[in-house]
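thought: user wants a sequence for this fold. calling inverse folding tool.
action: design(structure=
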């Protein structure tokens, strides 16, 4: 039998969804007057285009009315009216988003919050907890198996709403979203709890989901329990997490994430492995989870004999409860709202079209919360869904020319999602996951089993603990399989292929993807359905041409697509990081010590933001290092002091610095350096103990020198010492501090344990044993030149580092040295060097 009629993709809401996204993404980071003007212009454009559309349509109706001969007439030709109607809707949607931003923005950053952050005031805040705390595990095992301080395990981060803020004698009520870094109570926080915390505030960049970062100076104090409509979910989550905690290995750690999206027990190593193998989406609640909930309720309702309307109502209520259970993360909201729309439209007896429904959901969510437009989780969720709706069908048909259709569909589904998400994934990490599709194919049979059985175990836990334990053990097996696939694939050679970073990389991958798909689909008929349809009967061979010859004639298109992808990938490799280090260079690096000879130049990176501590003696090697690492902009420059080996390379970054932290100028030459930085557009700030700020998700704090005191520390002794903390690697940069100033700084600031220390004064012997013993660093970076004539690093310093378990990494012997969170699971850090890659 022949295939039935085929439907095309309904893209009518694609334009409005894109307009809403662009408007939200741009306007949330612009000054309020600009948003006011944009809203006015967009509303005027929408109304004007609508009036024009209605006027032209009425004129056409009058023109064609005399031509009606009978009661049935030919449809009036629309011409370009459809385009104008779509443009009017897009402008109206964008205007609605702009209006939502105008209404919400003042509440997000009230004056009291802004003032407290700018004054670096110590504040007391009451907050409502809205996400499960994520433990801060910045201290992994040191060499020899010695762990860092045990009290660090109680530190964590969580998102909350700031309800009241007390600064001095003044208390202000507000409702501002904040990200909190603090010491957690012995019993982990629950969603919906009211808590109190003393700390300091740092405003985030415009457009960030959180208005400010709150760094606690005291442990979190719980004030009130969650409301009843929230606490039932806390009970279910905590009970299921306790059950899963008794299961062995990575399978037990991963099970709550796969079943209900609770990743609080997932280790850093397993999290990195899931991301490196393109399996992290399995721990993010998606449309599949919502479909399971709805299908289960609808089936159970039918068995009970409920009418269809009541089954839909109960399913919607259950879906709302599920959102509360798994917490309303952006991907959850997208999935739940889309599932609700499909359910309601189906209940009204009307067919739902996937792409149109997705567009409607995007518009609704961005109007309700425009700050979702810059959320990577929301973007990946929308793009993955769009990829499945638009590409999965055509890919399945194309692949089915060479393989059985069921196998083609199994391959096409993860490939469609990965192709759609790849541009955004490149913004997170400029690499391509070569084994992402095979990893998903291996994990695909286990994922639904772990999800469904784990969810049932979670729900029945309070009612029947024994059955819940049995179900959790059953769900552990597929969960352990997923974890094993992730760990294995992430450790394979060439798992991540370097690619161009930034907009150039996104544009290149988009062009390569479009061309490859065009070549792959060029033999397909235009307008084919992208939805499942009956398989057509085999057509007779034309003119007796053998099937083998026709099959071979189609191979050039597929071969061209494969060659184009491979060629584009290796062009990105050559332009980005170089083939020689493609297999081992950690794309997730956070610290990089440049080899600039006898001098300091160390980079700290988080997301798209970069700090540079000192610039070395010569701009040439620094410029080469920045180019090799793909660094174009320095968000934060720290000049520890004014010796030539720390400031001589300043020319390499002039005009590329946003903020510069410097020590007090000692002479006219120092002032001249400040003037050069200001002329290049940098804000120059004289730093002292107590200065704080953020770099992406990291918090930096100046520990030394003090602003006043009986002793004036200048030169080496007054080196600006900065510490980075918050997530990832905790580090400290000591400039050229000697033993006396190290002890003075230690007494004044108590920096505590760190993961990485930039060893003071290129490894001279003037060091404090007590200070390095307190730091307990896993890695000590020594920025030093070969044959420097000073004997750096000295035997005393190397012996000192060895005695406290700190591994010395020297730029004179190992060249460029890069430190990243480990992906191997055998230690806290991965250390890559230009001449030797190693992990610690």
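)
observation: tool returned 840 residues.
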């Amino acid at each position: 039998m022949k295939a039935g009629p085929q439907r095309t993709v309904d893209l009518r809401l694609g334009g409005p969804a894109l307009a809403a996204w662009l408007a939200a993404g741009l306007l949330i980071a612009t000054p309020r007057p600009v948003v006011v003007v944009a809203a006015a212009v967009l509303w005027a454009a929408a109304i004007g285009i609508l009036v024009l559309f209605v006027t032209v349509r009425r004129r056409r109706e009058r023109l064609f009315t005399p031509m009606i001969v009978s009661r049935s007439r030919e449809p009036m030709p629309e011409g370009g009216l459809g385009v104008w109607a779509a443009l009017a809707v897009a402008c109206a949607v964008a205007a609605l988003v702009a209006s939502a931003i105008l209404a919400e923005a003042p509440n997000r950053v009230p004056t009291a919050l802004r003032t407290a952050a700018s004054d670096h005031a110590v504040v007391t805040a009451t907050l409502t907890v809205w996400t499960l705390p994520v433990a801060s595990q910045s201290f992994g095992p040191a060499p020899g198996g010695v762990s860092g301080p045990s009290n660090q395990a109680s530190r964590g981060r969580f998102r909350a709403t700031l309800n009241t803020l007390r600064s001095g004698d003044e208390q202000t009520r507000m409702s501002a979203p904040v990200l909190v870094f603090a010491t957690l109570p012995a019993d982990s926080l629950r969603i919906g709890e009211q808590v109190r915390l003393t700390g300091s505030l740092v405003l985030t960049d415009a457009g960030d989901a959180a208005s400010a970062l709150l760094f606690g100076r005291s442990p979190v104090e719980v004030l009130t329990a969650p409301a009843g409509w929230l606490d039932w979910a806390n009970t279910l989550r905590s009970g299921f997490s306790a059950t899963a905690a008794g299961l062995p290995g990575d399978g037990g750690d991963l099970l709550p994430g796969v079943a209900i999206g609770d990743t609080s027990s997932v280790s850093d190593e397993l999290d990195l492995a899931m991301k490196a193998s393109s399996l992290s989406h399995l721990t993010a609640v998606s449309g599949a989870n919502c479909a399971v909930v709805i299908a289960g309720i609808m089936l159970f309702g039918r068995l009970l004999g409920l009418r269809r309307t009541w089954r839909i109502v109960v399913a919607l209520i259950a879906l709302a409860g599920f959102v509360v259970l798994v917490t309303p993360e952006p991907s959850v909201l997208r999935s739940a709202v889309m599932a609700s729309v499909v359910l309601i439209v189906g209940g009204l007896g009307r067919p739902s079209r996937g792409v149109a429904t997705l567009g409607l959901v995007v518009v609704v969510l961005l109007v309700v919360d425009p700050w979702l437009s810059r959320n990577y989780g929301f973007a990946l969720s929308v793009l993955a869904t769009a990829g499945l709706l638009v590409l999965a069908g055509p890919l399945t048909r194309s692949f089915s020319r060479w393989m059985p259709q069921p196998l083609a569909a199994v391959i096409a589904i993860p490939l469609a999602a990965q192709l759609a998400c790849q541009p955004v994934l490149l913004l997170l990490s400029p690499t391509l996951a070569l084994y992402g599709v095979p990893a998903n194919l291996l994990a695909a049979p286990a994922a639904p089993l772990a999800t469904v059985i784990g969810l049932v175990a979670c729900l029945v836990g309070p009612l029947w603990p024994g059955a819940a334990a049995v179900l959790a053990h059953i769900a552990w097996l597929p969960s352990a399989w997923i974890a094993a696939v992730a760990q294995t694939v992430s450790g394979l050679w060439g798992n991540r292929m370097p690619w161009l970073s930034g907009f150039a990389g996104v544009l290149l991958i988009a062009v390569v993807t479009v061309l490859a798909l065009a070549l792959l689909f060029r033999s397909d008929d235009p307008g084919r359905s992208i939805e499942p349809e009956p398989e057509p009967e085999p057509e007779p061979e034309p003119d007796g041409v053998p099937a083998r010859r026709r099959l071979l004639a189609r191979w050039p298109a597929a071969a061209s697509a494969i060659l184009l992808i491979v060629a584009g990938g290796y062009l990105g490799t050559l332009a980005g990081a170089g083939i020689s280090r493609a297999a081992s260079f950690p794309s997730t690096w956070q610290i990089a010590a440049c080899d600039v000879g006898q001098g300091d130049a160390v980079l700290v990176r988080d997301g798209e933001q970069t700090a540079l501590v000192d610039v070395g003696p010569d701009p040439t090697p620094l410029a080469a290092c920045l180019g090799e690492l793909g660094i174009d902009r320095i968000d934060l420059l720290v000049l520890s002091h004014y010796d030539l080996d720390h400031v001589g390379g300043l020319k390499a970054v002039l005009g590329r610095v946003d903020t510069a932290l410097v020590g007090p100028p000692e002479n006219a030459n120092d002032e001249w350096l400040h003037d050069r930085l200001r002329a290049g557009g940098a804000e120059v700030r004289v730093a002292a103990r107590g200065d704080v700020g953020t770099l992406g998700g990291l918090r930096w704090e100046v520990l030394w020198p003090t602003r006043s005191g009986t002793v004036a520390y200048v030169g080496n002794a007054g080196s600006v010492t900065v510490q980075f903390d918050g997530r990832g690697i905790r580090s400290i940069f000591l400039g050229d501090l000697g033993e006396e100033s190290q002890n003075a700084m230690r007494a004044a600031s108590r920096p505590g344990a760190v993961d990485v220390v930039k060893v003071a004064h290129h490894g001279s012997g003037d060091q404090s044993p007590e200070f390095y013993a307190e730091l307990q660093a896993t890695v000590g970076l020594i920025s030093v030149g070969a044959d420097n004539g000073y004997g750096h690093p000295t035997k005393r310093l190397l012996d000192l580092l060895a005695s406290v378990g700190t591994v010395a990494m020297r730029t004179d012997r190992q060249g460029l040295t890069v430190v990243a969170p480990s992906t191997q699971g055998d230690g806290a850090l991965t250390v890559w060097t230009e001449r030797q890659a190693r992990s610690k």
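thought: summarizing for user.
answer: Here is the designed sequence. Residues 14-67+76-106 form one domain.
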